[in-house]
Amino acid sequence: MSSIIGFKAYDYRARLPDELNPAVAYRIGRAYAEFLKSGAGPKAGPRRVVVGRDIRLSSEELCDALGRGLMDSGVDVYDIGLCGTEVVYFATFSEGMDGGVMVTASHNPPDYNGMKFVREQSRPISGDTGLQEIQRIAEADAYSTPAHKGRRFALDIGAKYIDHLLSYLDRDRLRKLKVVVNAGNGGAGLVVDALERHLPFEFIKINHEPDGRFPNGVPNPMLEENRAATIEAIRHHGADLGVAWDGDYDRCFFFDEQGNFIEGYYIVGLLASMFLKREPGARIVHDPRLTWATLDIVESLGGRAVMSRSGHAFMKDVMRRADAVYGGEMSAHHYFREFGYCDSGQIPWLLVTQLLCETGKPLSALVGERIERFPASGEINRKVADAAATIGRVRARYEPEAHAMDFTDGLSIEFAEWRFNLRASNTEPLIRLNVESRGDAALMRAKTQELLELIGGEPD
Questions:
Q1: pTM of this prediction?
Q2: Is 106 a catalytic residue?
């Protein structure tokens, strides 16, 4: 038995080649198939599994090894090639597959790679629902012998995927927009190119060509230093908006026509409003970190807000149970019922362009009123020695004055004019703080500083 390092709360990521290499990828493929045979998946075990890979230089070799592991477990492998995580989700649910595995490390540096796993209908597999078991099986090399080996097929899902993306638009109501797109040397540029001939937009493409060496830095628009190229291009070209993606493009990030970065929190309410106008009374799922702006929009439009713990596995589970039309997290994950309740980094920007065309308003105006009414700190990370003790100390300080408390994800405390959420990271040794207020930016900033002084620790 040998240990396998890299299984996280929601996926698997590890450093190359010591922690992750083709031999490890093969074992994970076998363990994934064995896990699905164990009763967590199809009764007869998985027969057909989708595999895809991101642009990293190591991904093709690892995907091949993963596929061999699946085939040696009796599984037929349907290889969709170079793609984003959401394309594996789409192929899995749209083609009725028994599961799907995406080889990616998202926005991690090039010397990392990893995998994201789903079951039938693209149901997520997380630490609580199977990743620990997959790790146990792989470390034990405990695999059953199949009656026969599986085969490998190439599956071209591209046209069907593009048609699905376009189905969210009323193209007759679109007009010419100038859109800056920054794929960050990730794979999203390939999708933009496929969509381009169907849309009346002019695209200004930067860092557009896939390059697994990441010559322009890791594709992570959450890092402020990675936003400069998008902002400069918007201002130089007089663009209507900018969009940037992470490496496997399951998240997209927005910039308004002035080049201002828009926090994902305010995009949640924007998209919720679109779906509620299309489907009055629908359920909208949101996370607990920042809530007031979303709740205000959902309630004003007659929708039903449903809170979920942060994280894609939890959000997708709540989306299914509530049969919600849309769900959004402030972290730029957006989930759609018609997309198998999964997250997509392509559908959101298409919907935002539709809204710009229909309203005739700039993005700054569409989100500006929300930002002014519900100013927020954005997520602030701190490294602390003991997350549980820190949260306990904060609770003791604020509980006596609280109007309401919630423990859906960490600690949420509300007062009449401000609220905060404090939670330990699911994936990193960090504590995460979010603060918002009702129309009082100075109060929000003061309370943020007050909380940070009580939390202590070091900035991340």
A1: 0.96
A2: yes
